């Protein structure tokens, strides 16, 4: 069977970038694969998280998965920290990963910015990610541009382990998304829209009020050319807005360009905001109903149990292959 694993870190406000590149994909793909959609809270703490915020955001992300349409009876939804096998397999794999190959990870270089006071967890982050994937014998992992290198490392570690000890892990294939895989900041189209950007105007949170969403789009940067045209080279900011419009309305890029031909940006931005608001309103409604509910606790407990069952099989196989005494 085809097995997919993916997750969104509770490290900031889940925004329309994460929706486009991840959450909307989860909803679309859950019927084609056996899915494990987790909340990588252990990954979030590679940079400091305020404990209260981590707690709330972890629930938020879980509630948003469900509110956006991930079916907890089909997909396995769970918190990474509640399935201990992740941390344990990560250690086993750390002993297989080379210092040199981890040093070449561009995300580490970007996020550490050359400082040596960053946590060593930030450095070994890709090994934990490999453990996440390999525990479930995932065959497919959706990857954005920035995760391609990490998935390659996962495959290398799996192949190395299988070769050195015994065939234990499935090598996962990347699933490359065609559109909406890279939504850029509303303030600067040269930076990915990011949930940890301190400038809240750079993103639209999935939990922003309609009035806030409208304001953020009205302030989004464009250019002085005044034509709604999709051209990343010449018009990155406008192309980004068209991309968002397409993700949230379901309309094609062509159709959007035609609709606003010969018009400036005013109506385009207003209708873009409405497309986003009307998609998010029902999601927000369900989110508010479930975020503090026992129902959500039950979903997460049940998800962690289902996940641990599978994860334990793989972990035991890896430990046996390495020679640990197991019972
Ligand atoms: N702007 C984006 N456009 C498209 N996809 C995006 N994703 C994130 N931002 C965009 C996708 O969401 C998934 C989960 O990402 P993550 O939570 O692991 O973190 P990230 O990619 O590192 O996102 P952030 O927002 O920049 O978080 P911080 O700043 O905390 O690290 C991934 O599949 C990602 O591609």
Structural account:
There is one protein chain. With 327 residues, this protein is mainly alpha-helical. The protein has 2 domains: 210 residues, Rossmann fold, CATH 3.40.50.620; 81 residues, Orthogonal Bundle (Tyrosyl-Transfer RNA Synthetase). The chain is 54% helix and 7% strand. A 3-stranded parallel beta sheet has the order 1-2-3. Strand 1, helix 1 and strand 2 form a beta-alpha-beta unit. It is globular. The relative contact order is 0.15. The structure holds adenosine-5'-tetraphosphate. The site of adenosine-5'-tetraphosphate has 19 residues, from helix 1. Keywords: Aminoacyl-tRNA synthetase, ATP-binding, Cytoplasm, Ligase, Nucleotide-binding, Protein biosynthesis. It is an enzyme of class 6 (ligase). This is Tryptophan--tRNA ligase.
List the helices and strands and how they pair.
Blueprint lengths: L2 E5 L8 H14 L4 E6 L1 H4 L6 H18 L7 E4 L5 H10 L4 H5 L2 H7 L7 H16 L4 E4 L4 H17 L8 E4 L33 H10 L16 H14 L3 H7 L6 H25 L3 H29 L5
Parallel strand pairs: 1-2, 2-3, 4-5
Helix pairs in contact: 3-12, 4-7, 4-13, 7-8, 9-12, 10-12
Bound molecules: adenosine-5'-tetraphosphate (AQP).
EC number: 6.1.1.2
Catalytic activity: tRNA(Trp) + L-tryptophan + ATP = L-tryptophyl-tRNA(Trp) + AMP + diphosphate + H(+)
Subunit structure: Homodimer.
Key traits:
single chain, 327 residues, mainly alpha, Rossmann fold, Tyrosyl-Transfer RNA Synthetase, 13 helices, 7% strand, binds adenosine-5'-tetraphosphate, ATP-binding
């Amino acid at each position: 069977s085809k097995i997919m694993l993916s997750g969104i870190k509770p490290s900031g406000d889940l925004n329309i970038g994460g929706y486009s590149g991840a959450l909307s994909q989860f909803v679309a793909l859950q019927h084609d694969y056996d899915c494990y959609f987790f909340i990588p809270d252990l990954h979030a703490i590679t940079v400091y998280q305020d404990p209260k915020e981590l707690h709330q955001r972890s629930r938020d992300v879980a509630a948003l998965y469900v509110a956006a349409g991930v079916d907890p009876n089909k997909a396995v939804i769970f918190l990474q920290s509640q399935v201990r096998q992740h941390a344990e397999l990560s250690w086993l794999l750390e002993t297989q990963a080379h210092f040199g190959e981890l040093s070449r990870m561009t995300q580490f270089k970007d996020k550490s910015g050359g400082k040596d006071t960053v946590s060593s967890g930030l450095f070994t982050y890709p090994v934990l990610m490999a453990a996440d994937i390999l525990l479930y014998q995932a065959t497919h992992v959706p990857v954005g541009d920035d995760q391609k290198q990490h998935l390659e490392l996962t495959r290398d570690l799996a192949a190395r382990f299988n070769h050195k000890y015994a065939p234990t892990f499935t090598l996962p294939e990347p699933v490359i998304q065609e559109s909406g895989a890279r939504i850029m900041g509303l303030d600067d189209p040269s930076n990915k829209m990011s949930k940890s950007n301190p400038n809240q105007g750079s993103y639209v949170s999935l939990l922003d009020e309609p009035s806030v969403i409208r304001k953020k789009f009205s302030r989004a940067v464009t250019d002085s050319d005044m034509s709604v045209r999709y051209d990343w080279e010449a018009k990155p900011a406008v192309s980004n807005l068209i991309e968002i419009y397409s993700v949230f309305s379901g309309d094609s890029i062509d159709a959007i360009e035609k609709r606003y031909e010969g018009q400036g940006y005013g109506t385009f931005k207003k209708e873009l905001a409405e497309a986003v608001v009307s998609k998010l309103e029902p999601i927000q409604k369900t989110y508010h109903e479930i975020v503090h509910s026992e129902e959500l606790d039950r979903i997460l407990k049940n998800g962690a149990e289902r996940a641990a069952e599978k994860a334990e099989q793989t972990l035991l196989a890896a430990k046996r292959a390495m020679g640990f005494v197991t019972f």
